[in-house]
Amino acid sequence: MIEVVNFTKRYGDFLAVDDLSFTIGKGEIFGFIGPNGAGKSTTIRFLATLLRPTSGEGRVAGHSVTGDPMAVRRVIGFMPDDFGVYDGMKVWEFLDFFAVAYEIPRAFRKKIIGEVLELLDLTSKRDDYVSGLSKGMKQRLCLAKTLVHDPPVLILDEPASGLDPRARLEMKALLNELKQMGKTILISSHILSELADFCTSIGVIERGKLLAAGSIGEIQQRIRAYRVLKVRVLGEDTTRAKEVMSNDPSVRQIESFDHTVTAEFVGRDQDMARLLERLIQSGISVQSFAEEPLSLEEVFMMITQGVVG
Ligand SMILES: Nc1ncnc2c1ncn2[C@@H]1O[C@H](COP(=O)(O)OP(=O)(O)OP(=O)(O)O)[C@@H](O)[C@H]1O
Ligand SMILES: [Mg+2]
Questions:
Q1: Among 40, 50, 77, 198, which residue is least crowded by beta carbons within 10 Å?
Q2: What angle do CA 228, 263, 290 make, to 5 degrees?
Q3: Which CATH code, of 3.90.230.10, 3.10.180.10, 1.25.10.10, 3.30.70.100, is assigned to 224-304?
C-alpha cells in the first residue's frame, strides 16, 4: 500500500535521509520510530507529496508520489507534526473547509462531518471556536480533518506528541478504531511504548538510515541472540543463586536487586531448563524463574547501538 524506494533527501550539503526503502502492506499499522532529527518527518512529508526528493521514489496505493501527487493526496489523510488550526473558525467550519478542499459534494458534507465528529467524540464541540479547544481536542480535530474524504491510508506525524497521559490513551483508542476500520496507517513517534500495542510492523530510523524494518515479531527474533532471565528466590538465597548462575557458561551480566537476580542468557531452551535444575539441586528456594519478554524500548536501544540490524 505504501512503498518507499531508495528515498534520499539532502538539505544543501546535509544528508537528512539516506537511501531509505521500506514497504507497508494493506491494513498494516507501521510504527516509524527514531530519535529527534532522525528523518521521520522528512520521509513523511515526502510521502505526503509536500517535499521533493533528492532522489528515489514513493508509491501510495499504486500512485507515484512524484509522478501523480494529486492522486496520492486523494488517497491519504495527512496529519503533520506542526499543524496549524484556524483559530477564527468553528469546529464544523474547520472540517467543512477541508471537505470543500477535497471536493466533497455539498449534499454529503454535513453527514460526513457529523460522522467524523461522532467518531472522534467531538460532537458536543461542533459549534465551538477552534481557538477555545484544549490541545488534546485540537489534536483530535486534526485527526478528524484527515478523515473527511475517507482515505484508505493515514500518514500521521507524531499525533500524540504533547498530550497528557489520558489524552494519549484516547488517541490510542481512536487509532485502534481506525485500524479496525481497515485503514493502512503510518505513524511516527519517538515514544515506543505508545506504538508497541497496536503496530503490526515497525521501522527504526536513525541519522537518516533505516536500521531495521519488519514485523515486531521478526525484529524481536533477530534480537534473541540473548534473552533476559529473571530469577526470584526466597530468604537469603540471592548470593548463592548468583554464584550458581555465574558458574553457568550460558549466563552473563548478572545483577541482583533485593531477591531478584537478573542475567543475560545466551544458551538454548535445554540449557535454561538445566540451570533451573541446578539452582534447585543446590537447595535454593526458587520462587520464580522466567524469561523477560523484550520491550520495544530494549529492541530500539539494541538496534540503535548496533547490536543487531
Ligand atoms: N528544511 C530543512 N533545511 C535544513 N535541514 C533540515 C530541514 N528540515 C529538516 N532538516 C534536518 O534534517 C534532519 C531530519 O529532520 P526531520 O524533521 O525529518 O527529523 P524527525 O525524525 O522528524 O525528528 P523529530 O523527532 O524531532 O520530529 C534534521 O537534522 C533536521 O535538522
Ligand atoms: Mg518530526
A1: 50
A2: 50
A3: 3.30.70.100
